[in-house]
Amino acid sequence: MLFSVAQSDTSSVVQQRLPFINQLPATRVATLATTALLKEIYLTPKPGLVDRHNSGAHNDMDFQTFIVSIQAISKWFDNFYYCGYLHKELEGSSLLNVIRPLGIACEKAMFEATQGINTHKGAIFSLGLICVALGHLEARREQVNHVTICNRVASICQNILNELVTSNRQKTAGERLYKLYGFTGARGEAAAGFTTVIQYSLPIYIALLRQGHSEQTALLQALMVLMAHNNDTNVVARGGLEGLIFVQETAQKLLDQYGLFLPEDLTPLFTFDQQLIDKNLSPGGSADLLSITWFLAQYEANNL
Ligand SMILES: CC(C)(COP(=O)(O)OP(=O)(O)OC[C@H]1O[C@@H](n2cnc3c(N)ncnc32)[C@H](O[C@H]2O[C@H](COP(=O)(O)OP(=O)(O)OP(=O)(O)O)[C@@H](O)[C@H]2O)[C@@H]1O)[C@@H](O)C(=O)NCCC(=O)NCCS
Ligand SMILES: Nc1ncnc2[nH]cnc12
User: Fold this and answer.
1) Which CATH number fits the domain that encloses residue 260?
2) What is the DSSP string of 208-235?
3) Domain with 73 in it
4) Is residue 186 a contact partner of residue 245, using CB atoms and an 8 Å limit?
5) What does pLDDT average to in each consecutive run of 10 residues of the chain (304 residues)?
6) What one-character DSSP code corresponds to residue 114?
7) Which ligand is closest to the CA of 234, given by its number?
8) How many domains does the chain have?
9) Is 291:242 a contact under the CB 8 Å cutoff?
10) For atom 6 of ligand 2, which residue has the closest CA?
11) Ligand that lies nearest to the alpha carbon of residue 171, given by its number in the listed order
């Protein structure tokens, strides 16, 4: 296990529902989820995002903020997995009501560790759902692959968009942008079974690895493909529709013009990074989907 978290860090929610959960062994799934977040933050250069080169379009967080955040939330991925595993009798949408308090408690641990900075709110939601789905599938001894994992996430989130449709509150960016433009953000991606990952980033990532390219090259290509296709509410929150169109069209133009972004010449990505910094645009949602991409590819490589 990369990080250990004091047992007292788990919330009362977990203690009430699963009092023995902290005595359960760390899972390989949680280690994989933690590694997926580390792979993402270490990848450099990521246009507009925090990486080892700079903080992208962020003046409130840096590389170390993400490391501290990952340390704080790492243990929670075990809790998500066991929650899915120990509630195998529940069907899809009933699971969401059980795990949501866990996710909110994990968000709290993140905010405490980062002094209130939102580093991984979306990642906790998306990767947390993946861990719940894996626990649920494994407990039921169902087939496990990237398709069944994402289908189980879609089943868990089958009613989640209702909260956007019926809610009058616009407390978060996601809720506000749904009312303004109809974007469903992280909720929509999960309810659709991470189709942006399944259709775009995962196939490209796996194909490049099979061709012998480095993990960095495969991850950079996957990120650019995600930025070209993902309706990232982080980008819209900062730059409106104009900002989203700029990110998607520029990413696609670079993919068309350069094909691959190889270590010997990453200039186009550094230039794109500076453009997004100048425009205060950050594709945080695509960064999360990149972690999901790496996780699904690695899980299958380890287990099939
Ligand atoms: C379901 C919730 C998580 C939804 O929260 P919210 O109402 O805020 O909805 P969204 O805005 O749609 O999404 C929240 C975060 O999800 C990421 N995201 C955005 N678009 C997409 C997309 N199309 N696909 C996938 N993921 C997406 C994104 O998160 C990442 O970016 C954040 C960091 O970037 P930054 O720009 O700094 O963000 P801010 O600080 O907010 O902006 P600034 O002030 O700096 O300008 C970081 O979170 C990354 O992860 C979106 O931010 C929520 O309602 C919920 O239920 N939470 C509880 C958890 C839970 O339910 N868990 C259960 C499963 S275990
Ligand atoms: N590296 C990163 N920079 C900014 N926002 C993010 N959200 C997730 N990963 C991120």
Assistant:
1) 1.10.4200.10
2) HHHTT--HHHHHHHHHHHHHHH---HHH
3) 25-302
4) no
5) 39 66 83 97 98 98 98 95 95 91 95 98 98 97 97 98 87 93 97 98 98 98 98 98 98 97 96 98 98 97 80
6) T
7) 1
8) 1
9) no
10) 284
11) 1
